[in-house]
């Protein structure tokens, strides 16, 4: 195995010395492209439309009655917490965001500990925020380089309360499952490894060696390595992610589902065949310089609040912003920058002013109507180009860098305005207004998130986004390009590290050369396929490195039954969540460090690294003394499991990598293009940019060109009483972690079991505000029903409704997925709604029959 000069493998004095960062700074200045190195960008998203899926039908579970069938609840309890409705807010952030940040930080972590964490979060010598993957500024960073939701995440990570063995001795799994998700999270940090043995209804303490022995015994007892499922959260840093996929592949399987399968898989599947890279092409500086920004299927005010600061800079530089969203969101309306409180000249305006107007044109699209909307804009642009030849479409760029333009053009022009307006819900005149903002501009960026990717046509819609940018020549130059906004701190980095069930052959070959084993070539299971395989009894062990698949995935009761069928479930986590309670025959709950915790190993204070949405890899070094207990780092847990399971069969030095994470990075540097001299580059302030071909107009597709796509616009008829549901987050929530019951921007307080409805749809069903309702989803003749939600009138297109996940996830059918990406369609669920009282007789009879049986 080759050595790296000046590596800690050869010189232990090099270990862990991240404070020696020097003065060098590779940050690109405004208008410049970042130094990226010359290595080709790895192509991690080479989608195969003919790929074999697990096609077996999983019947719809009895969602409504599941609470009577199992003592441990998989769904959040139905008890209402007391809805208080207020007017929807029109301004995001401001003084309230500052106060909320402090409130969460001090209440959970304490004033001293909480403040210290906040001041070190997202700093060049600190730790990476564990919430979203929005990039940090390359140059100057504010003293308070965090947003409200980042502060909540840091407060949760820094929690000084403990959920130790005594807590679990006091509370059974059934009792814990009747707590709300907020209260489970607030129980405190996990402190000791725990086990639930067959027949037990409590977790109890176990020693680490015994926990590793259980894992090794169950894994090695399987008939095939493919009977194991190894799931990863996007919160996991690069180093443990790399080790996790290494262990799983040395063990013999590619079953590496991760949260990316449920969020931006559609982005990668759409970007790779069109641009050559399944990642975005822009930098943060590009956002600042854009002339037009189109924000689609995204709510930055709640999900990526620091993005609002970048949009504010763009607006101050003259940019126009087009927002595309079924809901009117405060963060896309006006923004008061909390950072202005630190400037005496701006403090008053930040306190009482109207804030910066964000959106110039707001297109309140119907759910799943984004492709039709894009076609309408492009149809207008083609018409404008006919009237003003060469002034709208960038024909020179199209000719030099692309293929497929004429077929794409005819596809757009042949789409009728009637179809465009019907599917999108946007008038031709409104689309013209948006097109006019774009027509004469060249610096255009399209940002999108799960409002696009979790549609039935998510991949095709991403391709249509690329079509728009290509026809404008708006890619591969400052101020222009693609911007899929990632939802978790290192979800993009995990994929770069090899967390994928279909890694390309060149990656597997590099692993074989570096570690001396032959990786399996058979494709593994993604999230949906893993759930199906588990539910069908084809697997025996489920291992989760962070995350909460039960609450993040579709068809909650299907996942729960899948977990119950496993011989062993293993959950690595920092705090308790509902997913830890629904277990296999034996279950392990293993505590680990957060991004904020100091990680001391034999070589000293260790750092890890994360990759943000724009391809910057930077260090993550904890600053807080961990809560007292017996936690191990993610690296130590993976290496301990590998040693116990693989034994002498493995040639990998797992001990060396546990003791010194620089050793891990030396391996990564030799395996993954773009990470050459990893340890040296990571110690530069702000980290380094990974190679990005599309950013330089180097399109690493099969033909070396950027490819226009001919997409198919599909219509899906509904029955007269049916509505289309999309699931969303509340403001006091990050992914599946619930911090509180409020969603103040939407006027919701002290409740989560709500359904946002158009007032006309409510009137047609005889509903009033705060009426109790049941929601039933319909898919291929099957029904799933959740009970006891509260109807809330809201500004949402007629025929569309919205609810929070995870409460609404039981309605999302496991079989309803986006084409190619296999992403669950959480943004397109056909439902009917009826007053709860109307179902009482039916439910009573159902329950009486069930109890009798």
Automatic annotation (TrEMBL):
Q: Any idea where the Molybdopterin oxidoreductase domain is? A: 189-570
**Pfam families assigned:** Molybdopterin (PF00384), Molydop_binding (PF01568)
| PANTHER family, A to Z | PROTEIN YDEP, RESPIRATORY NITRATE REDUCTASE
- Per UniProt, residues of the Molybdopterin dinucleotide-binding domain are 723-828
Q: What organism does the record attribute this protein to?
A: Hymenobacter armeniacus
Is ATP-binding there in the keyword field? no
Q: What is this protein called?
A: FdhF/YdeP family oxidoreductase
Family annotation (NCBIfam families): Fdhalpha-like (TIGR01701)
Its family remark reads: Belongs to the prokaryotic molybdopterin-containing oxidoreductase family.
């Amino acid at each position: 195995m080759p050595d790296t000069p000046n590596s800690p493998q050869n010189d232990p004095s090099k270990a862990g010395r991240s404070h020696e960062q020097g003065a060098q700074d590779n940050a690109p200045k405004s208008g410049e492209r970042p130094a990226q190195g010359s290595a080709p960008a790895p192509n991690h998203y080479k989608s195969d439309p003919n790929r074999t899926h697990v096609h077996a039908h999983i019947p719809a579970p009895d969602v409504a009655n599941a609470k009577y069938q199992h003592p441990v609840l998989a769904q959040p309890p139905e008890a209402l917490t007391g809805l208080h409705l207020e007017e929807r807010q029109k301004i995001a952030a401001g003084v309230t965001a500052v106060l909320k940040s402090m409130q969460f930080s001090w209440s959970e972590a304490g004033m001293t500990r909480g403040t210290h964490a906040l001041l070190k979060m997202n700093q060049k010598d600190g730790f990476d925020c564990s919430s979203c993957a929005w990039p940090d500024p390359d140059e100057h960073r504010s003293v308070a380089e965090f947003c409200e939701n980042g502060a909540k995440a840091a407060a949760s990570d820094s929690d000084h309360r403990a959920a130790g063995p005594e807590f679990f001795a006091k509370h059974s799994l059934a009792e814990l499952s009747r707590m709300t998700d907020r209260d489970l999270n607030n129980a405190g940090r996990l402190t000791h490894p725990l086990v639930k043995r067959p027949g037990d209804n409590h977790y109890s303490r176990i020693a680490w060696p015994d926990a590793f022995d259980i894992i090794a015994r169950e894994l090695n007892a399987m008939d095939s390595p493919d009977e194991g499922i190894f799931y990863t959260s996007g919160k996991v840093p690069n180093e443990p992610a790399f080790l996790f996929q290494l262990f799983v592949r040395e063990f013999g399987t590619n079953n590496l589902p991760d949260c990316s399968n449920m969020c931006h898989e559609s982005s990668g599947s759409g970007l790779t065949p069109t641009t050559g890279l399944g990642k975005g092409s822009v930098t943060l500086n590009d956002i600042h310089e854009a002339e037009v920004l189109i924000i689609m299927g995204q709510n930055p005010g709640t999900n990526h609040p620091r993005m609002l600061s970048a949009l504010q800079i763009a607006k101050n530089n003259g940019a126009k912003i087009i927002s595309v969203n079924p809901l009117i969101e405060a963060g896309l309306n006006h923004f008061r920058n909390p950072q202005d409180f630190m400037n005496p000249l701006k403090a008053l305006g930040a306190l009482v002013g109207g804030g910066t107007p964000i959106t110039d044109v707001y297109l309140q699209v119907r759910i799943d109507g984004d492709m039709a909307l894009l076609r309408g804009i492009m149809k207008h642009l083609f018409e404008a180009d006919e009237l003003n030849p060469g002034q709208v479409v960038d024909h020179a760029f199209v000719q030099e860098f692309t293929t497929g333009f004429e077929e794409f053009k005819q596809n757009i022009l042949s789409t009728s305005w009637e179809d465009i307006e019907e599917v999108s819900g946007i008038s031709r005149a409104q689309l013209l207004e948006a097109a006019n903002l774009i027509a004469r501009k060249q610096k255009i960026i399209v940002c999108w998130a799960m409002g696009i990717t979790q549609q039935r046509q998510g991949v095709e819609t991403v391709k249509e986004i690329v079509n728009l940018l290509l026809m404008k020549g708006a890619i591969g130059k400052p101020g222009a390009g693609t911007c899929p906004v990632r939802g978790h701190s290192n979800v993009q980095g995990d994929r770069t590290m090899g967390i994928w069930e279909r890694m390309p052959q060149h990656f597997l070959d590099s692993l074989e050369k570096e570690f001396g084993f032959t990786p399996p070539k058979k494709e593994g299971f993604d999230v949906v396929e893993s759930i199906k395989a588990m539910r069908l009894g084809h697997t025996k062990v489920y291992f989760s490195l962070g995350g909460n698949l039960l609450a993040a995935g579709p068809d909650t009761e299907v996942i729960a039954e899948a977990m119950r069928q496993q011989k062993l479930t293993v959950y690595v986590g920092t705090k308790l969540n509902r997913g830890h309670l629904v277990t296999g025959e034996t279950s392990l709950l293993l505590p680990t460090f957060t991004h904020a915790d100091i990680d001391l190993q034999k070589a000293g204070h260790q750092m890890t690294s994360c990759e943000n949405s724009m391809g910057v890899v930077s260090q993550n070094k904890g600053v807080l003394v961990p809560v007292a207990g017996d936690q191990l780092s993610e690296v130590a847990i993976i290496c301990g499991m590998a040693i116990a399971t693989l034994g002498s069969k493995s040639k990998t030095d797992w001990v060396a990598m546990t003791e010194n994470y620089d050793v891990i990075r030396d391996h990564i540097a030799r395996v993954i293009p773009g990470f050459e001299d990893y340890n040296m580059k990571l110690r530069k302030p702000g980290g380094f940019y990974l190679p990005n071909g599309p950013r330089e107009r180097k399109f690493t597709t099969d033909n070396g060109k950027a490819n226009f796509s001919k997409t198919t616009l599909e219509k899906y008829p509904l029955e007269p009483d049916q509505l289309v549901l999309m699931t969303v987050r509340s403001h006091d929530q990050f992914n599946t972690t619930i911090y509180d019951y409020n969603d103040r921007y939407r006027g919701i307080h002290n409740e989560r079991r709500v359904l946002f409805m158009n007032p006309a749809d409510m009137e047609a069903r005889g509903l009033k505000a705060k009426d109790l309702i049941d929601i039933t989803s319909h898919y291929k003749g099957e029904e799933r029903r959740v009970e006891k939600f509260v109807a809330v009138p809201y500004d949402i297109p007629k025929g569309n409704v919205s609810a929070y996940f995870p409460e609404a996830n039981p309605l999302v059918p496991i079989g309803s997925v986006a084409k190619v990406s296999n992403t669950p369609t959480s943004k397109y669920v056909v439902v009917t709604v009826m007053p709860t009282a109307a179902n009482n007789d039916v439910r009573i009879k159902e329950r009486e029959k069930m109890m009798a049986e």
